[in-house]
C-alpha cells in the first residue's frame, strides 16, 4: 500500500457512523462493545473519534475526561488494516486530544495477553501501574488487565 493510502483522517464520530464502527469492533474483538455502549459514549459527551482512510472507517477510539484526567475506554483498528502503524497514529491523536483538553494524564487497560498493544503503549510513554483481576471477559471466563498511565505535560 502506498504512503498516500496510509494518510489517515481523524473525524468526530456521529451516530450515523455506528454501523461501520460496530463492524470493525466485531471483526477486531472476541467480546465487542454493543451499539448501546457507543450510543451512551456519544450521548455523554466523551471524545469519540474515527480513523478514516479515503472514505472508509477503519478505526475508532473513545476517550472520557473528568477532573483533569482522561481514560482511553476503547481503541480499535479493523484487522485488515492492522500492522501498518494506524493504531499508533490513532493513539497519538487521542493523547493529543487529552492534552488539548488540559488533562494531566491518560489511563487505559489492556488485556495481559495483548502484547502487541502493550508494546505500542510502552512506545508512547505509558507505564504499568497495576493489574485488574478478571477485568475482561474471555473464552475461558475472564482475563486480567494491565492498568497503564501516561503523564501529560501541561504548559
Give the CA-CA distance, first to last residue.
38 Å
CATH level-1 class: Alpha Beta
Beta-strand percent range: 35-45%
Helix content: 25-40%
Give the domain tally. Answer: 1
- Strands side by side in the biggest sheet: 1-2-3-4-5-7-6
Number of beta strands: 7
Name the structural class.
Answer: alpha+beta
The rough form would be described as: globular
Mean pLDDT: 93
Q: What sequence of helices (H) and strands (E) makes up the elements?
A: EHHEEEHEHEE
Question: Which homologous superfamily in CATH is the superfamily?
Answer: Gcn5-related N-acetyltransferase (GNAT)
Number of helices: 4
Low-pLDDT ranges:
none
Largest sheet: 7 strands, mixed
What is the C-alpha radius of gyration, as a whole number of Å?
A: 15 Å
The CATH topology is Aminopeptidase
Structure, described:
The chain is an alpha+beta fold. The chain has one domain: Aminopeptidase, CATH 3.40.630.30. Helix content is 28%, strand content 39%. It is built from four helices and seven strands, in the order βααβββαβαββ. A seven-stranded mixed beta sheet has the order 1-2-3-4-5-7-6, sandwiched between helices. Strand 6 and strand 7 form a beta hairpin. The radius of gyration is 15 Å and the shape is globular. The model has no long low-confidence stretch (mean pLDDT 93).
Amino acid at each position: 500500500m502506498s504512503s498516500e493510502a496510509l494518510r489517515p483522517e481523524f473525524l468526530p464520530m456521529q451516530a450515523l457512523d455506528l454501523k461501520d464502527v460496530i463492524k470493525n469492533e466485531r471483526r477486531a474483538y472476541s467480546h465487542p462493545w454493543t451499539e448501546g455502549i457507543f450510543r451512551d459514549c456519544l450521548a455523554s459527551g466523551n471524545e469519540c473519534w474515527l480513523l478514516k482512510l479515503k472514505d472508509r472507517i477503519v478505526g475508532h477510539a473513545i476517550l472520557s475526561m473528568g477532573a483533569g484526567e482522561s481514560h482511553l475506554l476503547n481503541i480499535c483498528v479493523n484487522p485488515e488494516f492492522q500492522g501498518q502503524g494506524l493504531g499508533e497514529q490513532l493513539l497519538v491523536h487521542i493523547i493529543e486530544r487529552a492534552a488539548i483538553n488540559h488533562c494531566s494524564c491518560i489511563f487505559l487497560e489492556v488485556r495481559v495477553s495483548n502484547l502487541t498493544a502493550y508494546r505500542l503503549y510502552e512506545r508512547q510513554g505509558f507505564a504499568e501501574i497495576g493489574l485488574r483481576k478478571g477485568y475482561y471477559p474471555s473464552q475461558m471466563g475472564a482475563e486480567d488487565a494491565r492498568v497503564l498511565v501516561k503523564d501529560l505535560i501541561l504548559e
